[in-house]
Each structure stands twice: as C-alpha cells, then as structure tokens.
Amino acid sequence: MDIDLRTRTALVTGSTQGIGLAIAAALARAGARVAVNGRGEEKVARAVEALAAQVPGAEPVPAAADVTTEEGVARIRELLPRVDVLVNNLGIFGAEDALDISDDEWRRYFEVNVLSAVRLTREFLPGMKERGWGRVLNIASDSAVVIPAEMIHYGVSKTALLAVSRGFAKEAAGTGVTVNSVIAGPTHTGGVEDFVYQLVDRDLPWEEAQREFMRLHRPQSLLQRLIEPEEIANMVAYLSSPLASATTGAAVRVDGGYVDSILP
Prior knowledge:
Strand order of the largest sheet: 3-2-1-4-5-6-7
Mean pLDDT: 96
Shape: globular
Radius of gyration: 18 Å
CATH superfamily of the largest domain: NAD(P)-binding Rossmann-like Domain
Order of helices and strands: EHEHEHEHEHEHHHE
CATH class of the largest domain: Alpha Beta
Distance between the termini: 26 Å
Number of domains: 2
Helix content: 40-55%
Structural class: alpha/beta
Number of helices: 8
CATH topology of the largest domain: Rossmann fold
C-alpha cells in the first residue's frame, strides 16, 4: 500500500510527544511536510530535531503556538498559510470524581479538547474546499463511547468531538475534502503511565501496573494490552492519504476491540 503525501503540508497539534509525535513521524515518512505543534518553543524545537533524525529527508516545521486560543490559531495561520492535512490531536485527560469537577474544569476540557479543533477546522477547511482536496482528522477516544466513571468530563468532550467531525464532514460534502475522527483506545504514552499509576499501586513495576490497570479498569479490551502510539499513527496516515478518499464523516476505531459494539 503506497501512502504518498508528497506535496502536502500537514499540521498535527500537540505533536511534541506521544501519539501526536508518532502521527507526525508517520506523515513525514509518507512524504508530507509536517508542522510540529506545542505551546513551548524549546519543546517544539526538540521534537523537530528528534523527528528530523527519526525520518531521513524530513524537514519538519516548528509551529509553537497555544491552539486553545484565538491568538494561537492566528499565529498558526501566519506560519502555515496552507494546510492540506489537519490532525487535531491536542487533548487533556485526568481522573477526577464526577461530583468534584468544577464548572471551570468542564470549560477547560471543552476549550482544549473540542474548541481547539473547531477553530482550526474553521480556519483551514475553506482553503481545502477551494483546492478540492484536504483531510481533517480529529483524534477522539474510546471514552467518547464508553464514558469512564473516573473522568466523565474527558469522555463527554470526546463525544462532542465525534459530533464535530460528522458536522464538518457535511460542510465539506462533495468537495473532495474528508473529515473523520479516530477513536483511539487505551494507548501507551508517558501521560497514560502517570494516569495508570493514579489508579493502581505505584510500587508495581510498569508491566505489572499495566496488566493490573487493564484488568481492573479496561477489562473489555480484546487486545488486553495498551496500544502503541505508532498503531494509532498508521491509521491516521492511511486516512490522510488519497487511498481513503471514500471515507468521510466516519468514526474509525483503533481501540483494540475495547468498545463492545459492531459500530461506534
């Protein structure tokens, strides 16, 4: 399968580490000019350097900006007048008792997990439509479908992201632009390691802690392990390519069989 993104410019938000960095690497391997995004210039610079070393011939673009703000989105627009592949990966999560989640915390989760994607899509989708080609991908979560009791604010924000994806896909209907969401299952990242240790014994070695977390908190996973970021990135690279031209308005699962449903 030849995934060819040469001549395309991609922006991956929250791509200095974890799933975002893995997605940036996958798109760069496919030939895309990839913009690496994060809030801090130093962290972005380190990620750009790491990506260039990881993918020979790649020329990643640093795009330091806080995309949860209108000013940050305007900054991205200055750096990238044209984006062909937009991957809204930025997201926050964390365990908190449902009755203790404040209004401010609810607002913060929607600002980061939902409105950042809305603003960037609103910014770059018109150009994609005019050119007759583009890809918008929103990285959602199994928590959008199976709301976790320990972080309902996160789950609800990802449910909203599924609806955002479907709605913008209708806006792009018939233009050659596709808009999809990717339902990522429990994935092995540094942030998730911290989250796992919020819920299981901190004295356990990582492999044991991971198994205990899956057994107690994600028992319906058919994979029975955490997903690696590269496995999410493989699906994103495919959906970003011309090969996925007939897939739009969809919620595509890379969840290790976690969601117990034939459809999302």
